[in-house]
Amino acid sequence: MEPGDYAPILKKIKVGMLEPGLQHEIAELAAEMGYEATITASSNLHFLFKIYQAEKARAGASAEALKKAEDMILRLSSLHHAIIQREEQRRKTERKRKAPLNLIEGGLLVSKKTRELLLSIGIEDESTVIKAEELFGEKLVGDRVELVLASTLGKEVVKKVFARYPETVLIPKEDDFISELEAMENKKAVLDGWAKSNERPLPVWADYDETPGILIDTYEDITRQLGIPLPKQAPEKIEKERSYQSRPMDPDDFKKVVKALGFQELRETTHGTLMRDGGGNTMCIQKAHRGQMELSAPTLKKKIKESGIDPEEFEGKRRELGL
Q: Three-state SS for 76?
């Protein structure tokens, strides 16, 4: 294979993913070949291929420098899978920090139903099963599983994500768990849209069937690596979001307001209502519990921001409806 065949792989690897010694070698090679741009930990290694191309096209190009660049590109491409595996482990470690629970001494008796529920979304990891029973109990585990299976991810994708990252189901706060599901749905939509608009399959690192961890990466990482430009948020809108002071609200009243703003119900679950507007923005509105649950002010503000709703427009519609 030619060095150009490895260019897509180089785009997936950041300098910061490499061992310090290898980073130093790359910096030395870049300097030797006259590369003047600053190399940072977030730089992807595609710049090596650009250096190689520039040197190859230069009159009187150094055969030795070209050979060094070719060898380095080959070396990095062979490390690709090891780097991806290490990144998968990093993701798993980060997810565990969201649910830092300890196992009960001597273990915990887990109901058969809880095991079956978690198995239905791909979770077999014993420590996760025990922690889920300890934290939520059979009923709430069932509610979470129902939400997961009702998502637009699809059963096969769900099983791959939760089998690889079972700790996701242990996110303690209900709002955070629902937000995580919504984010995974939106990231899948972004990836599917890229494949459709480019009329070609997703690269392996971005294919959620092959690399399910892509669905828990940040939007910034996904869009940057796929070359999708993010719309710039107007300063006025940013200022509105910063200054907006929300008030607690009954979930049913919140639903009335967002429906008046164009959101439609997608499906009902035991836990709540999944909604979407014409622009593809989604949200999940939890049902009231025990006649006294309200959406807290921070939760309300977060939902408004993540769903692309203008705070002033929301408040205007809320007053109009007398809520």
A: helix
